[in-house]
Amino acid sequence: MTYTAAPEASLTIAVWQHGSVPADVHANLEALDEAVAEAADNGAHLLITPEMFITGYNIGERLAPLARLQPLERVREIAKRHQVGIVVGGPECAAHEDGTEEIFNAAWLIDDSGEVLARHRKIQLFGELDRDLFVAGNAPSTVATYRGFTIAMLVCFDVEFPEATRAAALAGAELIAVPTAQMEPFHFVNEHLIRVRAWESGVYLAYANQVGDDGDLTYVGRSVIADPLGSHLAEAGPAGSALLIATIERETLTRARAQSPYLSELRREVFQTPTAK
């Protein structure tokens, strides 16, 4: 007789709200190291950083040289040393044989042994800031399995499109991890939209925001962890660093999807994206 291990019943996650030091990879890695250590002490299996945390977001022409150094690779050692998985935001540089390069606003899922399980490249670029610095990704959802849970990644503006969250859910996501750099005046996204996205697709959603001033931007903080019943399990204030800890439970996913069966009832053959004429 063959025995199959039962799936994990729960996963404890940490959402880290913190402000990057602009263009200072070393300082940001040191801060991340301390946050992961604190998350480990609180029993977390996975920590999620804000968008573009490793280099800072609004850094203009300083970005490209830092991206070429592949700074996200340096996070792997932190995950391995603390034995905590990390979803980290930062730039990903892709060099081509013809000498050209592309820089993506990326999120990596790194497991507790330091292995990169998945990479997501932001698909919905926001405004001139994004479009001047990055090339858009094309994968509607990026999904991997960590500690028995199926985890998808989106980046900031991606999650504001219901199509992106639904694509991740239909691909099997139970948790969607979203590094973000949400700014004024869009705090309603944190306060209202994130819990709606979680509820309408029957997923947990972890939304980790930058905080403070960054050039001409002011980040709204208010990081949240929402459950598939539409409740905030944890939320941070508009200012200051915070480490949110919550446990996601498979039983809650099952109950939420039975209560609001949008995924199972969706007539996919009807809702096909029309071709523009």
Describe the structure.
The protein is α/β, with parallel strands linked by helices. The chain has a single domain, classed as Nitrilase/N-carbamoyl-D-aminoacid amidohydrolase (4-Layer Sandwich). 27% of the residues lie in helices and 30% in strands. It has a six-stranded mixed beta sheet. The chain has a six-stranded mixed beta sheet with strand order 6-7-8-9-12-13, covered by helices on one side. Helix 1 (25-41) runs parallel beside helix 3 (75-82) and helix 5 packs parallel to helix 6 (187-201). The longest helix has 17 residues, at 25-41. Mean pLDDT is 94; it is low at 1-5.
The biggest sheet, with number of strands, parallel, antiparallel or mixed sense and barrel status, is: 6 strands, mixed
- Total number of β-strand segments? 14
Q: Which spans have pLDDT < 50 for at least 5 consecutive residues?
A: 1-5
Summarize the amount of helix as a percent range: 25-40%
CATH topology category name: Nitrilase/N-carbamoyl-D-aminoacid amidohydrolase
The string of secondary-structure elements, in order, is: EHEHHEEEHEEHEHEEEEEEHH
General form: globular
Mean pLDDT across all residues, rounded?
A: 94
Strand content: 25-35%
Class, according to the CATH hierarchy? Alpha Beta
Q: What's the name of the CATH homologous superfamily? A: Carbon-nitrogen hydrolase
Q: So how many helices?
A: 8
- Structural class by sheet pairing and helices: alpha/beta
CATH architecture: 4-Layer Sandwich
Number of domains: 1
| Radius of gyration (Å) | 18 Å
Q: Gap between N and C termini, in Å?
A: 57 Å
Strand line-up in the sheet with most strands: 5-4-3-2-1-14
